[in-house]
Design goal:
Radius of gyration of chain A: 15 Å
Number of helices of chain A: 7
Order of helices and strands of chain D: EHEHEHEHHEHEHEEHEHEEHEEHEHEHEE
Helix content of chain A: 25-40%
Order of helices and strands of chain A: EHEEEHEHEHHHHE
Structural class of chain D: alpha/beta
CATH architecture of the largest domain in chain D: 3-Layer(aba) Sandwich
Low-confidence stretches of chain A: none
Helix content of chain D: 25-40%
Low-confidence stretches of chain D: none
CATH class of chain A: Alpha Beta
Mean pLDDT of chain D: 97
CATH superfamily of the largest domain in chain D: Thiamin diphosphate (ThDP)-binding fold, Pyr/PP domains
CATH topology of chain A: Pyruvate-ferredoxin Oxidoreductase, domain 3
Distance between the termini of chain A: 22 Å
Radius of gyration of chain D: 21 Å
Number of strands of chain D: 17
Strand content of chain A: 15-25%
Shape of chain A: globular
CATH topology of the largest domain in chain D: Rossmann fold
Number of helices of chain D: 13
Oligomer: heterooctamer
Number of strands of chain A: 7
Bound molecules: thiamine diphosphate, iron/sulfur cluster, magnesium ion
Number of domains of chain D: 2
Largest sheet of chain A: 7 strands, mixed
Chains: A alpha/beta (179), B alpha/beta (301), C alpha+beta (88), D alpha/beta (393)
Largest sheet of chain D: 7 strands, mixed
Strand order of the largest sheet of chain A: 2-3-1-4-5-6-7
Strand content of chain D: 15-25%
Mean pLDDT of chain A: 94
Number of domains of chain A: 1
CATH superfamily of chain A: Pyruvate-ferredoxin oxidoreductase, PFOR, domain III
Strand order of the largest sheet of chain D: 3-2-4-5-7-6-13
Structural class of chain A: alpha/beta
Chain lengths: 179, 301, 88, 393, 393, 301, 88, 179
């Protein structure tokens, strides 16, 4: 079982994105689970979510304490201590950013860091910052936990072809800035 | 002092950074009302966007500078009746007792509590910010929601399109309760709004005062955040939200609105109205015309 | 026992959200067009516009959410919404 | 010494509440409680009681108005029954969890359906898990004394939990008997005015947010505090009982009363007004040579588990008589909880639940005697026997 | 076989309710339940569900509207949480005691105060003595299956008691996972339409008075019937589970589920979503050689006392983990009731209450593991140990 | 058919012997309303004198000849909304769904439920028999109780004498709810009453219909049992209880009452008013005059 | 199981109180004064006055409570309230 | 302890009368208890009540099953089977009536019957049938359970001098028609 924690802000589509991953995972006959964590659900407030992907039934209904992967949809969140908290030794980070590795100030135990300018992609394609589908594209490429086509199909079903494009672009653009 | 002077000079009683959306009408109403009420005020804000936006605060992080409590969704008027009675009893009648509640807390879940406090003539000012829906829980229908609106419990489906009933017109209902003061106000007409908050506070020293304020909501209604005041202005001009007051039984139209715009003009560009049929628009227009006629009659015009 | 159910008031421990970070567009006032009518102050939902005793109006950016209401409501079109740059 | 008076249970509650100098009373009429409110209204309108009287439109508002007044620093009172208690359940729950002290009288009544207005303890019992302290009274004297003690317990800084003073609808609320009514001076001496800073009071002079959003970890601490305060209340109850005895010469034994239990083999456990009938039955059975005693449950929240276990330890048999049911247990609720109190006991009891007196039905001496006989006959056969229903035919 | 879908717990409840072809749905939005109502509204407005949808102004009216529709012969549905459940308490109590069958989903939430909107089972637990059947679900699949089973149980002539299908707010209501959604045909085959004369229906063609005033002795018989029907429901629950297994290939073991209990020395007793975490903990501890099992309480009304006693018999130690408190007991409510279920057991257990997950707090695997370790370490020291609070700091 | 013909020919649906007091206005209203509604009716009677007088019956002894249920004091309109919806769904739209409730159940405890059912436009006829108090529980104050009245929760004391607030005027409040039909009626004006029950039943097939009926109570109010109709008549003549109706938004005064009698004349000989001071009487007169003026304006007079 | 919460309708098992026994005064109609207007029928709260098809009105005494409303309301004063004698 | 059951009809003042007895008994330093039994409290409906008088504290809070005395304020009630039910062997009946012993049809076990025309007294003095204070007068005389003066003082305090007169007249007029 892989445990993933997602970070974003209200309005960036963390929940929808995670649900798409679960759909794709289930479509691929794996097991997936997503639990959003609510402080306030209001625009701009930090939002967390816990995503689990496994070959076996996922029984635990609890928060993720030591994520294997962090997905960060908004790099302004990295100043909050919660954001990097608990990352597993050698765990990976997938982040929507244009910052350099240095600026990201990732924790010691970090294994790999993959960066994608999802905001840029989103603003280019949609004229606003809804980076979630682009981040999913990066996630599909880097994590290897979900079948790309299944996930992109789900994206298209829910958000339309343009978002598939966003995911595709991110899939191609995402870069490992630390390995 | 002109209303602008009042708003410029009076201290903001709210946290500078609260999480109401960009361009939220509720935030504007809250800040301005509390500026006018000032420090010697106790306020109740039941569950809803204003409470949810951090104003009642979090444990060890409060969003106001004056004493505040978040009562139940259904008991604001009763809770603050009890509090007001205690302040009468303590001889501290100068303290403003104010409730600021959404339309859900006012017209629906807390309506009985409100009606009864009005009937008893409890000494408090009850302000409803009416964004026509339960915004805090994700924009579900309320009884004040305009007919045909898209909400998350009255979605635009293939069979039923939006809300099927006309809105419940709470201010006129409360005006029929023998209250001291009852009025409508809109943030678009700020001078009028300021005057009515002042009158309401004064009236609350003698009995029950009620103010029903149009509260545009970009997020729920679907319009650009900078358009809120304009939407409110159009609502007033279309008689969708006529401005009037009732002072100890005497009705007065604050604006006779001799050249109203149409409902069709009002709804333009507002997302929640996008599936309105022509019949819907006609029905709203008829309701609005009828209501305005009634108000004119009540005001002796 | 610590007092329960109570949160103190005051700047200490106040709940403050960094709403400036929401801003994508930034209201910029052209003083030369401004007639000091105060409408922007009256309509800013955030209270981000302040007026001095001599009725000069200034936009403060610490909490301005960038909603654009001030720009839309200024009768003189003296406020422009400009994309947020690096400056703050 | 007070004044001798002849009063119904409801008037007793009203007089006692008035003696505690409440700032505000808000209540809504309902059978069998109505005369509590009426009598208070009479005292207020006659100037005999200086309190604000708020004539609300429902019990939901009754509890909300007193909640607001308590949050404004007032000592408050209300009373209700059955449907009224159910209707106020939401603010009722909040009152206790806000830790605002007050006393509310409950003239207990059966819950509809079937449609009824008569006696039964289902109302108070069904809401026993909403955080209030609950005490059940046997006599009108006890009603008076517990309303007065109730304020002292509720307002104790170690407790800060509101108190329900419960008594049987009709069988107590409408029962007339002689009582000793403390004088105002006596009560003033016993019960000090509520300290101004007894709990958080909404006031611009000392501004704060009352009950803002609270995250789980902190909320859990509040709950733990509440449970601990409930537990501490067991001691406070005893203390107040002793203080009261000193001031007024009457005492009740704290959370439970034991009657002829010392050498008893078998025990009836009762609650509320039926206890008097039970004591008569015990005396009669004793004359026949049956070694029977009685435990009267007085406080059921906090549940005096240790004291019950101790009182029953070494006995052979017991029966708990409930005037309510525990849905889903085929038993009475106090019986079920009594069993929970005996988890670690070494005794092997013969025991069973008895249910009687619902919806105004009587609990008669004969039924008590029959129950004693049955206990006596089976006392040496440990284990749970079938639930006994006091049905008339 | 149904269709594979990925749904939140709330959508699961809504989809399942729709499959049961309700005549009328009335509900009021409240976090974390709101998306149940929203999704049903969506289905109705899109013509996918042929049901009357009544947009009420409060939960009190929600329960009252469905009550009226049920009295008119309809199959009805609603859903709520916390404050909403508290506000509807009066008609809620009447629904069960009128013996009108229905299913209501509860996305459980902590009760205010402290002010909260997050998870916790205090809401459903605090009203467990109001006559409803209550089942708690672990997974979204179980939510679907129990809504469907719920109608069959509630409408069974031997039962005729409405059913609460409870699941954890957020931790289930907002949890997304894959489920198998039965098709309409499958459900139609499994669950027949409500028989027209299933219960008294107000109708001028067959006039009668519904629920007239009822004197105590008769009322007591009604209550006894209710308790007996609750007891019978234990069998019906098993039957329906078996029928469901036949139709859909899934079964849940009836009122409780036992997990690796057979040879266990120590047992965790859990309720709701935490059970899955508990099972993971059991597996981990088993690998360390600890002989631990788990009992998942599924139905708590009727309380499966006999089955629990049997499942625990011969064990050395157990802990009941509650996501709510029992005010006045310093313990969790299911722990207290479990003790009552063990009144006549011969075993001398080491046992204690654990309380966690209030107000949105998490119940973590680590806490489960620590609890198992503690049980294991103390299993040979019978008696009640101190209540364990899963506090974060 | 004249109204007398209607009342003579239609079958009584109530037990011949019910325990309402001699001369009870409520009994008269109940019998006549149900005669008109007839057999194809389901009625709800919440707790109150009519339910208490044996009409909803006892287990195994029922007081009506048509299906009846006693809902909660606070949920009549909601319960019967659900029932009405089921009858719509069954295609049995001809069945009359009627609630007959006291003022306590209507104006106080069940007011929110009522207001919401009105707002939703539920298809039922809601009749309030207003005896201005909670008679069944021993005549406590309700919100419709006239100012100054003696009740058991507003006794005539040495300090406070009777009720301190004016009455809550429910019919006008409900009329502001966009309902199909809303009217007042008095048993003293029987032709008008019969016509309004008929109109109300017809209107209830299209939406919410509300009828507010003056219900004199000899026992509570303190007048001789034979004087009930006369008391009601005086109430109408004094504009204490003006007769009007609102049909889909159009207000009509049924009686312009050009020569009203005074409140002083109205209250004469009625026990509950015996401690009215001159100021009380003047206050009631002022309220009544103001209200009548408002009604006239609404009716376009 | 017997059906619960339900009471049948109809004359069978109907709740009927002997309200005639309440009567202290008895309404007696003087047919000679009566103009058959039906007011007494319209206002009798008990329904104790019946009218035949040819509009003759009769007081039935089985349930008449003796309130006197009919007498008070008869425009012709054709009804008198007389003390109840032995007759019935 | 003596147990008494009272019967009357709503409006005849059964409850008030019984409460006066308790007051008088308590004033005489005895113990008294009264529990009304409610069907419906409406005018004309049968009303019961249970009265206990004792030299010792009265603890039981229950109905009276085998009354020592029956007090019947309205002789139309004797046709109801409940009225005479359970009278103790040799128990007494105090009844407001002008009927003959025969017409009263008292049960076999009856010891004594005392009759008083309380209705007559009441109608004469007050112009209406509120027989309770007159019945109390008869009760004081016949039962011997309460001090006459204390009871009559209570009557006067609550109802005024005219009612004391009614009690006095009844005290004088009451006749044992069976001994
Ligand atoms: C009894 C009860 N039911 C439901 C809720 C959930 N709830 C919280 S806020 C809210 C909506 C409030 O709407 P409104 O008053 O209009 O305020 P807004 O969010 O629109 O500002 C609801 C339904 C609650 N808190 N209490
Ligand atoms: C929630 C609740 N509170 C209180 C009551 C008690 N109660 C029963 S009837 C009644 C008064 C009803 O008054 P109204 O509706 O005016 O009818 P009336 O008796 O005057 O005919 C009250 C308060 C109740 N049944 N339910
Ligand atoms: S949802 Fe609407 S009302 Fe709520 S904070 Fe946002 S803009 Fe304001
Ligand atoms: S609204 Fe425009 S003109 Fe007026 S003060 Fe502001 S910037 Fe100046
Ligand atoms: S953009 Fe909006 S928040 Fe910023 S100053 Fe203008 S009105 Fe205020
Ligand atoms: S008390 Fe009044 S309303 Fe009630 S039955 Fe008697 S007369 Fe009618
Ligand atoms: S009211 Fe008089 S005149 Fe008219 S029918 Fe009756 S008795 Fe005859
Ligand atoms: S006296 Fe009263 S009850 Fe008898 S007939 Fe006349 S109106 Fe009817
Ligand atoms: Mg709103
Ligand atoms: Mg009434």
């Amino acid at each position: 079982m892989k445990e993933i924690r997602l970070h974003g802000r209200g309005g960036q589509g963390v929940v929808k994105a995670s649900q798409l991953v679960v759909k794709a995972v289930v479509a691929g006959n794996y097991y997936g689970q997503f639990i959003p964590f609510f402080g306030v659900e209001r625009k701009g407030s930090p939002v967390f979510g816990y995503l689990r992907i496994s070959g076996h039934e996922i029984r635990r209904k609890m928060q993720v304490y030591d994520p294997d992967i962090l997905v960060i949809m908004d790099d302004s969140l990295i100043t909050m201590p919660e954001t990097y908290d608990g990352l597993k030794q050698g765990g990976s980070i997938i982040i929507n950013t244009t910052k350099s590795l240095e600026e990201l100030n990732v924790p010691e135990q970090t294994g790999s860091v993959a960066a994608v300018d999802a905001t840029g992609i989103s603003e280019k394609l949609f004229g606003k910052n809804i980076p979630n589908t682009a981040v999913l594209g990066a996630f599909a490429k880097v994590s290897g936990l979900v079948d790309k086509d299944l996930l992109f199909d789900e994206i298209e079903k829910t958000f339309g072809a343009k978002n598939r494009e966003a995911a595709n672009i991110a899939y191609d653009q995402v870069k490992l800035i630390k390995e | 002092m002109s209303y602008i002077d009042v708003l410029r000079e009076a201290k903001d009683q709210v946290t500078p950074g609260m999480s109401a959306c960009q361009g939220c009408g509720g935030e504007l109403i809250l800040r301005k009302a509390l500026q006018i009420a000032g420090e010697n005020t106790i306020i109740g804000i039941p569950p809803g966007c204003m409470a949810g936006a951090g104003v009642v605060g979090w444990n060890y992080a409060n969003g106001l500078k004056i004493p505040v409590h978040i009562p139940l969704l259904d008991n604001s008027a009763a809770f603050f009746s009890g509090l007001s009675q205690m302040y009468q009893r303590k001889g501290r009648k100068d303290t403003n007792i104010v409730v600021l509640a959404g339309d859900g807390a006012t017209a629906d879940c807390g309506f009985q509590s409100l009606s009864a406090a009005a009937e008893r003539g409890e000494k408090l000012l009850y302000i409803c910010y009416d964004n026509e829906g339960y915004m805090n829980t994700g924009y579900q229908r309320s009884s004040t929601t305009t007919k045909g609106s898209r909400t998350s419990t009255t979605p635009i489906g293939s069979v039923v399109k939006g809300k099927t009933q006309q809105q419940k017109y709470v201010p006129l209902i409360i005006a029929m309760h023998n209250v001291e003061f009852c009025a409508t106000a809109s943030p678009s007409n700020m001078a009028d709004f300021v005057a009515k908050v002042q009158k309401g506070l004064a009236a609350s020293k003698n009995g029950f005062a009620y103010l029903h304020v149009f509260s545009p909501c970009p997020t729920g209604w679907g319009y650009a955040p900078d358009q809120g005041i304009e939407v409110a202005r159009r609502a007033v001009k279309a008689n969708m939200f006529p401005l009037w007051e009732m002072d100890r039984g005497e009705f007065k139209l604050n604006d006779e609105n001799r050249k109203p715009i149409t409902i069709a003009e009002f709804v333009k560009g507002i997302g929640k109205f996008k599936a309105l049929s022509d019949e819907d628009i006609a029905a709203i227009q008829a309701m609005v015309d009828h209501r305005f006629e009634m108000l004119k009659r009540l005001a002796g015009k | 026992m610590e007092r329960q159910h109570v949160t103190p008031i005051g700047n200490d421990g106040m709940y403050v959200l960094d709403t400036a970070s929401w801003r994508i567009l930034r209201p910029v006032m052209d003083k030369s067009k401004c007639v000091e009518c105060g409408m922007c102050l009256a309509y800013c939902p955030v209270g981000a516009i302040i007026g001095s005793a001599d009725k000069k109006y200034t936009i403060t950016y610490d909490y301005c959410k960038g909603c654009g209401v001030c720009a839309a409501e200024c009768p003189r079109k003296a406020i422009d919404m400009k994309p947020e740059g690096g400056e703050k | 010494m007070g004044t001798k008076k002849v009063l119904t249970g409801n008037y007793a509650a009203a007089e006692a509440a008035a003696l505690c100098r409440p700032d505000l009373v808000a209540a809504y009429p309902i059978t069998p409680q109505s005369s509590v409110v009426e009598h208070i209204a009479e005292m207020v309108n006659n100037g005999d009681l200086d309190a604000a009287m708020v004539q609300v439109e429902s019990e939901h508002s009754a509890m909300s108005v007193v909640q607001g007044a308590a949050a404004g620093g007032g000592r408050v009172f209300t009373a209700t029954s059955a449907q009224g208690l159910a209707l106020m359940f939401e603010p009722y729950f909040r009152m206790s969890t806000l830790r605002l002290p007050m006393v509310m009288a409950i003239a207990t009544r059966e819950m509809t359906s079937p449609e009824t207005v008569w006696s039964g303890q289902q109302d108070a019992i069904s809401v026993r898990d909403a955080g209030w302290i609950q005490v059940f009274c046997e006599s009108n004297q006890e009603i008076i004394d517990m309303v007065i003690q109730g304020y002292m317990i509720a307002e104790d800084q170690r407790v800060m939990i509101p108190v329900n003073v419960c008594y049987d609808g009709f069988y107590s609320s409408h029962l007339t008997e002689g009582i000793d009514l403390p004088t105002q001076e006596e009560v003033d001496q016993f019960l000090p005015p509520m300290a101004p800073d007894n709990h958080p009071v909404l006031d611009p002079n000392n501004p704060f947010a009352l009950d803002p959003m609270t995250a789980g970890p902190l909320l859990m601490k509040y709950r733990k505090n509440h449970l601990e305060a409930m537990h501490r209340a067991l001691d406070v109850i005893d203390e107040v009982d002793a203080k009261f005895a000193k001031a007024f010469g009457r005492s009740y034994g704290g959370a439970i009363e034991e009657y002829r239990c010392d050498d008893a083999d078998i025990v009836l456990v009762t609650i509320g007004g039926m206890s008097g009938t039970g004591k008569d039955a015990v005396d009669i059975a004793r004359e026949k040579g049956i070694k029977v005693g009685l435990i009267k449950l007085r406080f059921i929240r906090p549940f005096p588990a240790e004291r019950i276990a101790k009182a029953l330890s070494g006995k052979k048999a017991f029966c708990v008589i409930d005037r309510s049911v525990c849905f889903g247990w085929s038993q009475g609720p106090m019986y079920m909880e009594t069993k929970a109190a005996l988890a670690d006991t070494d005794s092997k009891f013969c025991h069973f639940s008895a249910i009687g007196g619902l919806g105004g039905a009587d609990i008669s001496l004969q039924e008590m005697l029959d129950t004693i006989d049955y206990l006596e006959a089976n006392k040496n056969e440990p284990g749970e026997k079938e639930t006994r229903w006091f049905l008339k035919d």
